TrEMBL record:
Name assigned to this protein: PAP2 superfamily protein
InterPro entries: PAP2/HPO, PAP2/HPO_sf
Signal peptide: none
Keywords: Membrane, Transmembrane, Transmembrane helix
Domain of life (superkingdom): Bacteria
Annotated transmembrane regions: 63-81, 93-111, 149-167, 174-192, 204-222
SUPFAM superfamilies: Acid phosphatase/Vanadium-dependent haloperoxidase (SSF48317)
Length: 241
């Protein structure tokens, strides 16, 4: 047996390129100032009319959050009792999936805790007290309550995006469906919060990117690698008769 180097996975190289492209597009969006323009579509000088909408509050916010935590519990239970496509994953991969979701949520929560960015509904323009300050202006207080960047609620769905890296080992189709469901649900949750004035579009988009990067990073560390291969048989030279 001989040890062979762990060469970069071509698939990971492509995904890394797409991740950097997404980062560039996000930075470009931040530079356009489009957050306020979109917030003005839902907000008024008196506030956000949809802020206390029963469907947005009870279904899209409270129920969605509770459902997400039930899924987290189910994923951890699935390490021992896997349903569906999870049965095709080894125990280590099922654990990676569950912890990827949990760590993605934790990462977003820690960033929110450190952020001084306030929500749209806190802005003076929409009846609040805060001034608009870029979320990149670290340690610059806008006069509001802060703690609004990135979008914590959207992470209830985007946190599952990292499952793509685990599922692609056994079913590329299931991995794509899982990823699309996570992104679609996260975008829906983010838009519902934007209608309420709870977040800007950039908050939602950065949450998606961060959750993806967390899942990618965990997979780079935890993914199984073939470290040993059978040694090649030495060539045998036969003397002529």
């Amino acid at each position: 047996m001989t040890r062979v180097p762990n060469l970069p996975n071509p698939s990971n190289l492509r995904l890394g390129g797409l991740t950097l492209l997404a980062l560039a597009l996000l930075l470009a969006w931040d530079a356009t100032g489009g957050d306020l323009a979109l917030a003005r579509l839902a907000g008024t000088p008196m506030g956000f009319p949809w802020r206390d909408n029963a469907f947005l509050v009870r279904v899209m916010h409270e129920s969605a959050k509770n459902l997400s935590w039930l899924f987290v519990i189910a994923l951890f239970a699935g390490i021992r009792w896997p349903p569906g496509v999870l049965r095709r994953l080894p125990v280590r991969a099922r654990a990676q999936l569950a912890f990827t979701v949990l760590l993605s949520v934790i990462a977003i929560s820690l960033l929110k805790h450190a952020s001084h960015t306030s929500c749209p509904w806190d802005l003076k323009e929409f009846g609040g007290v805060a001034s608009h300050v870029s979320h990149w202006a670290w340690k610059v207080y806008d006069g509001g309550s802060g703690g609004c960047f990135p979008a914590g609620h959207a992470s209830a769905a985007f946190a599952y995006a990292g499952g793509y890296f685990v599922l692609r080992r056994v079913s590329p189709r299931a991995a794509i469906l899982w990823l699309c469901a996570s992104l679609a649900a996260g975008l829906a949750l983010g838009l519902s919060q934007q209608l309420r004035g709870a977040h800007y579009m950039s908050h939602t988009l950065w949450t998606a990117w961060i959750c993806w990067v967390v899942g990618f990073a965990i997979d780079l560390v935890a993914a199984p690698r073939a470290s040993r291969l059978p040694a090649a048989e030495p060539a045998v030279l036969h003397a002529g008769p």
